[in-house]
Amino acid sequence: MPIQIYPASLESHEGDLIKLFRRHLTKDSDEKRFDWLYRKNPLGLAQAWIATDTDKGTIVGAASGFPRKFYYRGKEKLGWVLGDFCLAEGYRSMGPALQLQRACLQALVPPYEFCYDFPSRSMMAIYKRMGIQQTGTLMRWAKPLRIDEKLEVIFRSRGAAKAFGIVLNKLLAARGWKGKKGSCQIDLVQGPCGEEFTALDQSLRRERVICADRTASYLNWRYLECPSKNHEILVARRDGDLLGYVVLKNDPEDARIVDLVSLEEPGVIARLIARAVDKLRLSGAKSVSLVAGQGHRWSQLFERAGFRRRESSPVIFSVREEQKAEEATFYSGSYFMEGDRDS
């Protein structure tokens, strides 16, 4: 079963890729997702690679890279976040997977300087065979909001569980530091993000060692135009000036804080988190998750807000060979969150 890897055409291979992703990766794979993810990113077109069984002439796998921009010590860096990796049944041995992933990493040529990935545990085995070690760790944090179901198990009575749940749910909602009232005003963004988001992004670039691109055009594309995610954005302002924002995935069955960007004011960050949690709770969420790099600078604030560490997952960060000395610093100085992945 000889396998050949070659670059995909976003035009002629669109239908094949959509079907492949829907069958082996996500039920959300359709024309809208493909157009949004592969063509409309304001940073540029995505790239995809196809694995073909040359004997059968069929496409059996694919992998992709999506353009990303970071600012490292004030200098612009272009790179890729890897994703949409899949292989059909019968082709999931180490050989085809290695061929396909090597094709992605070979795209790390000028002007692209870095790539990163959020691999599964099984995917980590492929990276290790390539001599690439885990760079960092993503941690999922969780905050419970409702305890009704657990009480039903304890009391074996829905009525008793409901009565006690009213009290205990209020205690859960009140748990955690919410910041100082009056420190800022929190509002829901109505319509697309404006240029004040770009101005905040430019300000953060000057203050941080590393900062991901979060311009208004990027935020509108990544969150508000995403066809399959119900994202909302809450902003913190003081005297009309934008201080920060939090992005929510408002789904009662999978409520999440996807992104959190702010000036380094603990009170403002706490207020953003608290209002996000309240909004998700009122929408019926039983718990809220937040995924961030294990070394995220605001980890203590997550704990103070009532979140607790849960399971972890690996992060791979790779830079071009001539810049290897800066690889660890590049990752450790980041504010990685779930919003830094696309697929």
Essential attributes:
single chain, alpha+beta, Aminopeptidase, 13-stranded mixed β-sheet, 11 helices, 343 residues, 31% strand, globular
Proper CATH architecture of the largest domain: 3-Layer(aba) Sandwich
Average pLDDT taken over every residue: 88
- Helical amount: 25-40%
Would you identify the regions where 5 or more consecutive residues have pLDDT less than 50? none
User: What fraction of residues sit in β-strands?
Assistant: 25-35%
Q: Determine Rg (CA atoms, Å).
A: 22 Å
- Count of spatially separate domains: 2
Main sheet, how many strands, which sense, barrel? 13 strands, mixed
Name the CATH superfamily assignment of the largest domain: Gcn5-related N-acetyltransferase (GNAT)
Structure description:
The chain has 343 residues and is an alpha+beta fold. The chain has 2 domains: 3-133, Aminopeptidase (3-Layer(aba) Sandwich); 140-340, Aminopeptidase (3-Layer(aba) Sandwich), CATH 3.40.630. It has 11 helices and 13 strands. Strands 1, 2, 3, 4, 5, 6, 7, 8, 9, 10, 11, 12 and 13 form a 13-stranded mixed β-sheet that branches. Helix 5 (148-155) runs antiparallel to helix 6.
